[in-house]
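Before the break, one more example. Copy the sequence into your notebook; we will annotate it together after we see the structure.
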Amino acid sequence: MVTIVDVARVAGVSKSTVSRVLDERLPRSQNATAERVRKAAAELGYVRDPLASGLRRVGTSTIGVVVPHLTDTVMAMFYEEIAAAATARGLFAVVASTNDDPDTERVAVESLVRRRVDGLILTTARIDTPIPLGPLGDSLPHVLALRTNDTSFASLGDDRLGAHLATRHLLDLGHRRIGLVRGPGYASTARNREAGYRDALTEAGVPVDETLLAGDSFTMQSGEIAGRALLDRADRPTAIFAVNDNNAIGVMAVAHALGLSVPDDLSLVGYNDIPVVSRLPVPMTTIRVPFAQIATAALELLNEASADGVPRTVTAAPTLIPRRSATAPR
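Here is what the structure looks like once it is written out:
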């Protein structure tokens, strides 16, 4: 895709100059600079992105991105994909972190609105809960990403499918006692991944043992606590699916502390495919989420939101990445 960055480089002008010259809503300039910009755009085959122009509510070309934690590798990875997709469209992405707290989120949104962002992408949605946009953000186009509240525009990974793939993989290896490390109950990602786990077991004719479900957060610490509850018992599971790679790393730490070998004593599957899991002493089987695809779709949905379109959800399919942490039970 040819962007205004490319046109600006060839014409020897700034991005803002290119944007101004090529904006059909403004009077057509006939000076030498404008002609040079139009010539460069024509030679490169530049086509103006309707998203970049459609969002120009106040003309800052800035998208606000709201995340629970930037220390969370998943959120950092996703923000980078949003920033890259925005740059390709002549937009700039700025991020705010909320500590996954609705009150802090409201303050963060108001701060972004005061900075005159043209739209918001939020990864902080809670199931069946309105987005805390506050009075300043009510009229601002916004799209949910990764998580949904089931009512707004949303760009998601297919978490139910991903969890089904993970659990089906363990079942195909021969496991029948498969534990689940869950995430927070308010997150659609956790809800849908648990549903996918249950789907796979039910389809295989394996009863869901509710005592093999533990956990309530997407952190390593939560994974350790859940892992201890599942593994420090006589009838421990032979495999565990953790709905987040951080949870899985916590489970792996507990297994090591208990003298259990992964995968000889315990098979383990995570979710998201953050970079570190392929470089662990035992590389981890996980579900890869197409963050770039989700980011691009979120930006495209912003255009629909800015035009007051009917809210809809776009879903991207994940992929199972088999590695050494999951094998047949010994």
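The first strand starts at residue 62 and ends at 67. The chain has a mean pLDDT of 91. Try to locate both features in your own notes.
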